[in-house]
Amino acid sequence: MANDPIKQFEISTIVPIEIANLDLSFTNSSLFMVATTAAVSAFLVLSTKGRGLVPGRWQAAAEMSYEFVAGMLRDAAGTQGMRFFPLVFSLFMFILFANMFGMFPYFFTVTSHIIVTFALAMLVIGTVVIYGFMKHGLGFLKLFVPEGVPGYLVPLVVVIEVISFLSRPLSLSVRLFANMLAGHITLKVFAGFVVSLSGLGFVGIVGSILPLIMTVAITALEFLVAFLQAYVFAVLTCMYLNDALHPSH
Amino acid sequence: MATTEDAAHGAAEAAAGVFPPFDSSTFASQLFWLVLTFGITYYVISKIAGPRISGILEDRHDRIASDLAEAERLKRETDEAMSNYEQALADARSRAQAVAAETRDKLTAETTAKREASEADLNSKLAEAETRIADIKAQALSQVDSIAAEAAEAILGKLAPTAPKAAAVTKAISDISKSS
């Protein structure tokens, strides 16, 4: 069924690989992960090859993305947070390029699978928890006890804080996953309308103008969402890392 | 799922029934490739691209700072040259004024001296002339008596039969001129 909006998320094996009874096949998803990595690396490495004092167009773009993420991290977590810069920058660039690749017709969207976004979210939360305990020891638990809360409210607040902390990896991963998934399904559904309506003759072709306009508009919106979700993921990462650096807020 | 082909087939079959993003049979592969590709991305960014871009930005920052410092230095030099020039200009002006004042004073002094000299000369000439006039006047006055005596004598000689003595006439004249 050509109009099945779910089909675009199917994973198909390209090169079957199995190690220790685990299916580690090279799939279309893997292909686009590799493409994402290759594109990010090529963009950042090749554009800065000349190390121009006056940047060219590509180098300016690479510098701009660098300074964008650096500014984001510095604002959220201070100069101490800059030690996590490679992580945040990698996350931002990887998600941004994966999302943008997804905007090409027939391309697979790596970030439309919950396992991928969840793994990235767990990487962030794992970093926060491990670094937090390493740096502050048990003092990291102060994160769950905000200052200036009346004594009788502390147990309640601690419970709420713990729940909110535990829901972070979930919200972080589901936000990205659901946005990409829903956007692509919507796009596919409206594009499907155009095809099936225009098959109905003249009236259908006239009637398909509206969904066509919608498709164009949603495509533009999806480009915005693709960037915005990468940005949101990076910003939230910065804020969570700030918790690891300064647990007593 | 004995062989990989079977596994792939099984995944595809499962995908037909299950919503693909929730199909756990593809999780292992996705995680494996994600770790690999994201790991490479992280490596490239942390070891190559990140340091290179930060180096570029730092170089530019340093260069701009040094250029600004150079500009500042040049500006300071310009200011200095400007103030030197103005100082020289002011010096020259005041010197010119001094020379002008000196010249003026000298000329005034000379003129004054000349004027005074000529005034003194004129005064002495005037005084000389006055004394000469006084002399002439005195002489004339002294001669007036004798002329008057002579005239009186002549008149008397014509009028009187006997000529009076010259000495008596002269005495009478001088009496008259004294009383008058």
Describe the fold and architecture.
The complex is a heterodimer of chains A (249) and B (180). The longest helix of chain A is centred in the last third of the chain and has 45 residues, at 154-198. Chain A has one domain (7-245). In chain A, the strands form two sheets. Chain A has a two-stranded antiparallel ribbon. Chain A has a two-stranded antiparallel ribbon with strand order 2-3. In chain A, 68% of the residues lie in helices and 4% in strands. With 249 residues, chain A is mainly alpha-helical. In chain A, helix 3 runs antiparallel to helix 7 (209-245), helix 4 packs antiparallel against helix 5 and helix 5 packs antiparallel against helix 7 (209-245). In chain A, a hairpin with a 2-residue loop joins strand 2 (18-19) and strand 3. Chain A is globular. The mean pLDDT of chain A is 88. Chain B is mainly alpha-helical and 180 residues long. In chain B, helix 2 (27-159) crosses helix 3. Helix content of chain B is 89%, strand content 0%. Residues 1-15 of chain B have low confidence and may be disordered. The longest helix of chain B has 133 residues, at 27-159. The chains are: A mainly alpha (249), B mainly alpha (180). At the A-B interface, strand 3, strand 4, helix 1, helix 2 and helix 3 of A face helix 1 and helix 2 of B.
Keyword list:
heterodimer; A: 249 residues; mainly alpha; two-stranded antiparallel ribbon; two-stranded antiparallel sheet; globular; B: 180 residues; rod-shaped; disordered N terminus
Q: What kind of oligomer do you see?
A: heterodimer
Spatial shape of chain A: globular
Number of helices of chain B: 3
Structural class of chain A: mainly alpha
**How many domain regions of chain A?**
1
Strand content of chain B: under 5%
> What is the helical fraction of chain A, as a range of percent?
55-70%
Helix percent of chain B reads over 70%
Largest interface: chains, residues each: A-B, 53 and 46 residues
How many β strands of chain B by DSSP?
A: 0
User: What does the overall shape of chain B look like?
Assistant: rod-shaped
User: Order of strands across the biggest sheet of chain A?
Assistant: 1-4
Number of strands of chain A: 4
Average pLDDT of chain B:
84
> In DSSP terms, counting alpha (H) and pi (I) runs of 4 or more, how many helices of chain A?
7
Written as H for each helix and E for each strand, in order along the chain, the element string of chain A is EEEEHHHHHHH
Distance between the termini of chain B: 181 Å
Biggest sheet details of chain B: none
